[in-house]
Amino acid sequence: VFKDFITGFPKESDMEVVTTDKVRLKIPEGSTAVLLKNLYLSCDPYMRWRMTMHDEPPCIPDFVPGSVVTGDGVGEVVDSSNPDFKVGDLVRGITGWEEYSLITAPKMLSKIRYTDVPLSYYTGVLGMPGLTAYAGFHEICSPKNGEYVFVSAASGAVGQLVGQFAKLMGCYVVGSAGSDEKVNLLKNKFGFDEAFNYKEEPDLNAALKRSFPEGIDIYFENVGGPMLDAVLSNMRKHGRIAMCGMISQYNLDKPEGVHNLFYLIAKSIRMEGFLVSDFIHKYPQFEEITAQYVKDGKINYVEDKVVGLENAPAALVGLFAGHNVGRQLVVVSHE
Ligand code: NDP
To answer: Is the CB of 324 under 6 A from ligand 1?
Structure first.
């Protein structure tokens, strides 16, 4: 349960685990609701946005103090009065951080197509982060074979896939991450050409110059702040920057300024923000292609699982300290 709106870094104590017998587990008569047994819940940086009260929420509603946290997840239908879902269906979509969720308007749920891959992958490589990486890279970055690609937060839910999609396109790919363990994953598990630990680099500009002596064609932005400034001055002519996220800024009362925007003009760079929801229509194509990559072993995916709802608040908060190694998710119940 989300307690109350916050400022600054989120804390475990901003949420509490509540046991109640008051949850409605009966489908109201005459409704088209679905009762879900939640199996996997995903921890996503955007959930931090929902913990602050906005006059006009930017893209997704704020959490409601005193109510159950909601987010992406995977579950099994255990009761249904909706003609589109039957008992036993496995679904992905927006659900509650609880053992069972009564979904009264299941328009945000969709049936899972492939059951010959790990079901939890539908919170990651075959779910929202996967579509973010796929559409953000292919649609926003307009990649070409042989181009130089840089990805920040590169070992996370989105970043690890951006790097692998870029390698499949024949690009040269470098990633940054916040520990040597993550750098090792980038190079040895995800096939990045190079990687560096940004926390150990006293000069990000120098680190990028070392990795890209000829400059960067494509930057997939996940972090913002000083990294964005350093990247801007290392971009090549006609480069593209996909503005996916700026996690370094989400907990600051006053976001840091960006100082090198003039390079957008000087180097004719296209910088474009996007939301994964802009590309929902691409989901079927993405799911088919990416599931095949996974089955063929062309894409690896690393997950960081915690077991039990009682561990969910710490898992979510840990994203903002880089505790997760790969896609952070919560196992509520096994299939
Ligand atoms: P991750 O799995 O990458 O987890 C977050 C990671 O961010 C942490 O592990 C940490 O990795 C890094 N991080 C945390 N704080 C900082 C900081 N201050 N400076 C630099 N890095 C930091 O998350 P996702 O892959 O799910 O999300 C990545 C980005 O994509 C986020 O910005 C998110 O908001 C955005 N996003 C945007 C979407 C859209 O529709 N536009 C959809 C989904 C995600 P490390 O140890 O490497 O520092």
So the answer is: yes
Q: What does pTM read for this prediction?
A: 0.97
Q: Give CA 289 to chain center in angstroms.
A: 19
Structural domains counted in the chain = 2
Which range marks the domain in which residue 248 is found? 128-277
Same domain, 16 and 120: yes
User: What is the ipTM for the molecules in this complex?
Assistant: 0.99
Q: Are residues 179 and 265 in the same domain?
A: yes
| Ligand 1 center–CA 248 separation, angstroms | 8
Residue 286 dihedral angles phi and psi, to the nearest 5°: -60, -45
Q: Nearest CA to 177 among 143, 146, 212, 201? A: 201
Cβ–ligand 1 distance for 44 under 6 Å, the answer yes
| 49 within ligand 1 shell (Cβ under 6 A) | no
Contact partners, residue 56, CB within 8 Å, separation at least 6? none
Tokens of 308: 């039990």
Residues of the chain with pLDDT under 50: none
Tell me, what CATH number does 241's domain have? 3.40.50.720
- Ligand 1 pocket mutation pick from 247, 283, 305 by most atoms within 8 angstroms of CB: 247
Residue 32, domain CATH? 3.90.180.10
Q: What number does the ligand 1 atom closest to the CA of 247 have?
A: 32
Distance CA 180, CA 209 (A): 20
